Amino acid sequence: MAPVTAASPAREADIALLLAAQVHLGTKNCNYQMERYVYRRRNDGIYVINLEKTYEKLVMAARVIVAIENPQDIVVQSARPYGQRAVFKFAQYLGCKSMAGRHTPGTFTNQIQKNFEEPRLLVLTDPRTDHQPITETAYVNIPTIAFCDTDSPMAHVDIAIPANNKGKHSIGALYFLLARMVLQMRDVVTPTNPWEVVVDLFFYREPEEAKEDGEDGGDFQAEGFAQAALPAPAGSSDMWGAEANEGTAAISAGYGGEAPTGFESAGGFEAAVAPIQPVAYVAPADFGGEY
Question: What is the dihedral of CA 101, 102, 107, 108, to 10 degrees?
Fold first, then answer.
């Protein structure tokens, strides 16, 4: 991968993407260890993150990820819902393992656990939400990369990427740029072979939006899978008049030979339905000749 200079068009385009995704917007609180990454504070009290330092930390994190030969030794985790889809996509394109949702205690420390993992690197979305995996990695000396906001705790975080980790667009843009940087350093993505993946795939989507777009597979007719109408069941009729009466009379005539008279007709009883004839027994030896 060619070195990215401070005035390169690719760097300016990436920083513009981070700016559009509001990665630079922090919170109204600032941790003393995050002050070095703050550019200034707005009038409403929001701290603004220096995107130049964010980009430098993204490059450093990409170099650390590339240094691990086996991608399966990398675990990307996000308990925050806005980062779960980005984690899945990041793991899909880089070939690493992903863990979305609640962290099971003991995943990195309890060896008799079914889902025990022993990674060489851990990438997290939010140190505050993912405090349990950070605590476990501190016990087993696993390096940790995390996206840290201005109010995020920095304990046991080895590489902190200053960014807004609370917005769905900012989290998606960060994972997108990090994945593309890793692929560029692996020479998978080159100027002659660009990465055709768009950043929208890393954004969190509401379940209602997915249903409106037909991602759940319910709209078959739009793709040419229209189902043919099933034939009507035998004996069904839309007329409840003469045809139904004729059918009842035919059944009663076949069973008794004549319509009900006397006590049955006076009492309003209907004729009984003819019993089903039992199937004749066929010996197993006759199956070959019979059928």
Answer: 80
